[in-house]
Amino acid sequence: MQFTDASTDPRLTDLIGRLVAVNHRLTRLAATATGSAESPATWRTLSVLRDLGAMRLGELARVSRVSQPTMTKLVHALDERGWVRRIADAGDARAWLISADPRGLAALDAWREELSAAMAPHFADLDDAERSVLETAVAILGARMERADVAAREGAVA
């Protein structure tokens, strides 16, 4: 089957819209399934720092789609836990870069394992073909997100 340019293919734009919507539902279910009291913003912030690397607070707020005061509070709480580090910005002595600390990344990995274990029962009845489709979909989405991360990193540098 031949697809047209994404900007003109209503089937593709509809598919992407449905994908994003079902992902939001999946994320809500996952948050409920773990019973974690931790703020989703904590995990999102650590994920951004893991995926995009160290960045200034304002850029971290922009990428995370929160206000700078909100990110300031979040980074302060993460810093108190030892989950992030403040690094002097070599390009501007007045500024700091925020990076994920190995302890924060370990906490993120542990949460993801907990999340996976909590969600597995919802997918346990998938047959081999369905699992294969999900593996392919995850690989495709992962590759697209890598491209988006590269673009975000390049935009942060510019």
From TrEMBL:
GO terms for molecular function: DNA-binding transcription factor activity. InterPro entries: HTH-type_Bedaq_tolerance, HTH_MarR-typ, WH-like_DNA-bd_sf, WH_DNA-bd_sf. Residues 9-143 form the HTH marR-type domain. Gene3D superfamilies: Winged helix-like DNA-binding domain superfamily/Winged helix DNA-binding domain. This is MarR family transcriptional regulator.
